[in-house]
Give the backbone structure.
Amino acid sequence: MKNFINLKDISHNDLRKILKDSKKRKKKRKNFNSLDLDWDKPLKGKLLIQMFEKSSLRTRLSFYLAMRQLGGGVQNLRKDELHLGQGGETIKDTAKIISIHGDIFMLRTDSEKKLLEFKNNLEIPLINGLSPESHPAQVLSDIFTIEEIKKKKISNLKICWIGDANNVLNSLIEASIKFSFKLSIASPKNYHPSKKFIQLINHNRKLISIFADPKKAIVNADVVMTDKFVSLNDKVDQKKKKKSFKGFQVNRSLTKRAKKNFIFLHCLPANRGEEVSNEIIDGSNSVVWKQAENRFHVQKSILLYCFKKLR
Ligand code: CP
Ligand code: NVA
């Protein structure tokens, strides 16, 4: 059994195996209906239990579809309907019950501590479906999308992140190190990555650079990415924070400095008109819908990785 919690803990070889399997499975599903099963039904009889402590549309739907297409079933849990949420039951006991009834657990949580406690107490694999510090399934799937569209290995491309130093960026930093791609980050000085990630950046200066000026970071980028300035449960003065991001909108004027054939990615949900202009997110460089679709293709192979079913 294997967990999928952070990209830094998974070998490059295994991450590549996941991407290879996703490519193969996606190719074989042309013209399939949403709930048609993959030919080999590798997770027949298995149950994914997924729990969301924060809102989710894409992650919820894509893990559901991923598990069903592999032949398994899915049970959703809402924190406010559990004893855990009411304060009566420990994480340890909750994890034991989840382990007795399910075969794999996917958690979207508002606490790193909780993620770790579940990891330490579950007897089944754990998938991180977004935590305050990381969003590994999103970023691995984004690498799949980038390579699929650019038809190049990501190590041959320049990736640029404009915006908040949030969970998605943290996973992207880990990915840059694992996959050896150039990552250029622009975020306002007061909103640079946390100390832990700055240390990672400092150890990998040949790959990762950080700027306070988006115009410098975006030069010659093949891929431009962003996310909301204020993340879910981000406990900040929103007005003040958004003010600091003036000049950080991905719009036509800024992207003139990227390569002409750059692609634009956003994990969504987006605040149109804030971190990205409508003309960019709806324009011809944007691949956001393909990016959202690829989530379930890649997550199928993440599930298989956790069950040690990838060859
Ligand atoms: N991108 C992403 O994880 O979206 P949701 O929050 O809707 O799951
Ligand atoms: N950074 C965002 C990602 C949402 C998918 C958040 O944590 O809210």
Remarks:
- The chain is about 40% helix and 15% strand.
